[in-house]
Write a structure and sequence with these properties.
about 170 residues, alpha+beta, NADH Oxidase, four-stranded antiparallel β-sheet
Length: about 170
């Protein structure tokens, strides 16, 4: 699949088959995530891979009842490490670590699509509840959950946007 096909074909999948996702596949997805750009190449991000049905169910509650979080065979919680970026960038390190985590999340989604997996970026969740469920170290900031599995649906493409609303030319 070429990049344009991947970008145009990726969808947020919320229904998954019962087929498990092999550990090696998950590792390959996380290796793809690590190819993402990173401020100062510090890679101020970490990944918590959740396959436990009980913990996925708890994360579903933390995600305000989004049931696909519980039903997906795998949930990856992507965390930013602001202190890691902050050592080099001071207060801006907070922002840079969140950008690092977001870039990695995007690469994770595209890698999943490339392998025929479905995935969904979940940003709506109670950070403190997720932190408690996973017993995260205080230095980490959970920025995204990603549900992953073999898709049991093919969502339609979203409506396109008139790019004149988004593009602003400043020419000299």
């Amino acid at each position: 699949m070429n990049l344009k096909e991947a970008l145009e074909g990726r969808r947020s999948v919320r229904r998954y088959s019962d087929r498990p996702v092999d550990r090696e596949v998950i590792v390959s997805l996380l290796e793809a995530a690590e190819t993402a750009p990173s401020a100062g190449n510090l890679r101020a991000r970490e990944y918590y891979v959740v396959t436990s049905p009980e913990l996925r169910s708890a994360l579903s509650v933390a995600a305000f009842g989004q049931e696909h979080v519980a039903r997906a065979p795998v949930v990856v919680v992507v965390c930013a490490d602001p202190a890691r970026s902050g050592m080099r960038y001071g207060d801006r390190g907070q922002l840079y670590s969140i950008q690092d985590a977001a870039a990695a999340t995007t690469c994770l989604l595209l890698a999943a699509h490339d392998l025929g997996l479905g995935s969904c970026w979940i940003g709506a969740f109670d950070e403190m509840v997720a932190r408690d469920i996973l017993d995260l170290p205080g230095r980490l900031l959970p920025t995204a959950m990603v549900s992953i599995g073999w898709p049991d649906e093919r969502p339609a493409p979203p409506p396109s946007r008139d790019m004149t609303e988004a593009i602003h030319w400043i020419e000299g």
